[in-house]
Amino acid sequence: MADIMETAARKVFERYDVDGDGLVTADEYRKVVAELEGSEITESQAQELIDSLDTNGDRQMSFEEFWAAMNG
Ligand SMILES: [Ca+2]
Ligand SMILES: [Ca+2]
Predict the structure, then answer these.
(1) Nearest ligand to the C-alpha of residue 62?
(2) Predicted TM-score of the model (pTM)
(3) How far does residue 4's CA lie from ligand 2's centre (Å)?
(4) Which intervals hold domain EF-hand (predicted)?
(5) What distance in angstroms lies between residue 52's CA and the mean position of ligand 2's atoms?
(6) What is the mean pLDDT for each group of 10 consecutive residues in the chain (72 residues)?
(7) Under 8 Å CB-to-CB from 36, ≥6 apart: which residues?
(8) How many Å lie between the centroid of ligand 2 and the Cα of residue 64?
(9) Which of 50, 21, 20 is nearest to 33 (CA)?
(10) How far apart are CA 3 and CA 39, in angstroms?
(11) Residue 54: nearest ligand to its CA?
């Protein structure tokens, strides 16, 4: 059950990770939100959201951080 959820979560994460390096930057997040939701957010709003999920302080969101946020 957890595996199915993790696979689904990984697919979502991969949509945000545009360049496929395993980390979502504020810039990637902002672009994908604009594309998927048609809503514009500023670079600083995107960075704020990433920072709120970022636990290792690199200011990017890894899958582990994304997954932890989903299960938080
Ligand atoms: Ca990336
Ligand atoms: Ca991080």
Answers:
(1) 2
(2) 0.90
(3) 24
(4) 4-39, 41-72
(5) 10
(6) 88 96 97 92 96 98 96 83
(7) 15
(8) 9
(9) 50
(10) 31
(11) 2
